[in-house]
Structure formats: C-alpha cells, structure tokens
Design a protein that fits this description.
Blueprint (H helix, E strand, L loop, with lengths): L4 E5 L2 E6 L1 H9 L8 E4 L6 E2 L4 H7 L20 H7 L11 H24 L5 H6 L1 H26 L5 H31 L11 H23 L1 H6 L3
Antiparallel strand pairs: 1-2, 1-3, 3-4
Length: 238
C-alpha cells in the first residue's frame, strides 16, 4: 500500500505527504487531534487521534507511574464537517492512469522510429545518394527533427514540466503532417531531376497512409485528454 497521506486544511485536501513529512507538520498545529487525514485504504477521512499509527507519535503515553489526567473526550469532528469530507478524495497527480499509458507510448514510439530508420537507410544505394542527395538529406533532416522533438517532449514529460502539454500537441501534429511534407519534398526534387511532372511522384504508399490514419486517430484521442485531464493539469506545473 502506498504510504502517501493527505490532510484537510480549510476544506482543501493537502498532500501527498510521506508519513515522515506528515508528523512534524501536524505537530505544528495547535490542536492536531481534530485534523482530518486520509490515505489509500481509508474508506473515509479520519481524525488524527483515531489513526493509531499517527496518534502514537504525536501523543506519546505519559511516563509509567504518573497518573493520567482525567479523560475529557470532546466530539472529534462536527457532523457537518464529516459529511462534507466523506466523499472528498485527493486530486490525481503524477504519471499514472491514462498518463502512464501515454508515457509508455512516447518511449516505445521513439524506439520504433529509431529501429525503422536503422533498417531503412542501409537499403539506400550509393548511386541513389549520388543522384538525389538533396532529396535524401532533406528527408533525413525531417526524420531527425521528428526524433529530436519526440525525445525532448519525453524529457519534459518525466520532468513534469509545464511545457509538456504544448510540446506534445505540436509533436502529434508534426507526426501527422511530416509524411505529407516529405512526399512533396521528394516529388519536387525527383521532378526537377527527371524533368517529369511533379504529380507523377505524388503517390502515397498504403503503409504510409495507414500510419497517417493511425496518427490522426491518436491525435483525436490524446489531444483532448491532454487539454481536459485533471491529472495532467495537476502534474505539469513546474
């Protein structure tokens, strides 16, 4: 069970905190017995004095032999407060849930692109490099830009940078339009080199079309998620 704690402060859930961070924080409060706390595994919020693992550190028993003061038990939590916080849960934050799936896709996507490029470029003959160097170097520059953008976006993701959402959206758009840019670039160079119409070279292979369709579907799913998710809003704040 994850040892992350939350406490109520003026009607707002504060945290997450480790157990070691929670104890000194509560000790600075004038009357910590009445403070509501919660961690994963609790059905409802509980008062500090009702949570043994916290109370035993904040309120150690008196030395043996001394008479304990008479017990005066006051209501720990007002009924209205208890009802108000019964269904309150901490805000989602961190790379978890759907965001964890997105993070996995980022890493796997980079590895797949690198593997694909590693298989593609050795198949290009020296004759083709000599005949169409501008076309191939331009294509290489586009591929390098895509990889660099994906790597930088992934770094922003794991650093919880506030710039990640915007860079992820730009990366998603770039993945969609890059095959079209590359197609037009190659068609233009081949047309100039062969004196043929550019339309003869503007043909999109079935594999490339399927990749573009998959990219469009992915954008339709992940861009709204990035813009609307509370976990994303709470995580990327640095």
């Amino acid at each position: 069970m994850t040892d992350f704690w939350y406490y109520d402060e003026g009607g707002q859930a504060r945290g997450p905190l480790s157990h070691a961070e929670l104890i000194p924080l509560l000790a600075r409060i004038a009357d910590p017995r009445r403070v509501l706390i919660w961690r994963d595994g609790f059905e409802d919020w509980k008062a500090v004095e009702d949570v043994h693992e916290v109370a035993q550190q904040l309120f150690p028993p008196p030395p043996s032999g001394s008479a304990p003061p008479p017990a005066v038990r006051e209501p720990v939590v007002d009924a209205g407060d208890a009802a108000e916080f019964k269904n309150v849960k901490p805000e989602l934050t961190g790379i978890g849930g759907w965001l964890a799936l997105l993070a996995l896709g980022q890493v796997v996507g980079i590895l797949r692109v690198l593997a694909s490029l590693g298989q593609y470029y050795p198949t290009i003959s020296d004759e083709l490099w000599k005949r169409f160097p501008e076309a191939l170097w331009g294509e290489a520059a586009l591929n390098a830009a895509m990889v660099c953008l994906a790597v930088y976006t992934t770094v922003l993701l794991f650093r919880h940078s506030r710039h990640f959402p915007s860079f992820f959206i730009w990366q998603t758009i770039f993945v969609i339009v890059m095959p079209l840019i590359n197609l037009v670039w190659l068609a233009l160079i081949f047309s100039l080199a062969t004196n043929k119409s550019i339309s003869e070279f503007l043909t999109l292979e079935a594999k490339e079309g399927a990749q573009m369709l998959a990219a469009v579907i992915g954008a339709a799913i992940w861009i709204p998620y990035i813009l609307r998710s509370r976990r994303v809003a709470n995580t990327f704040t640095q």
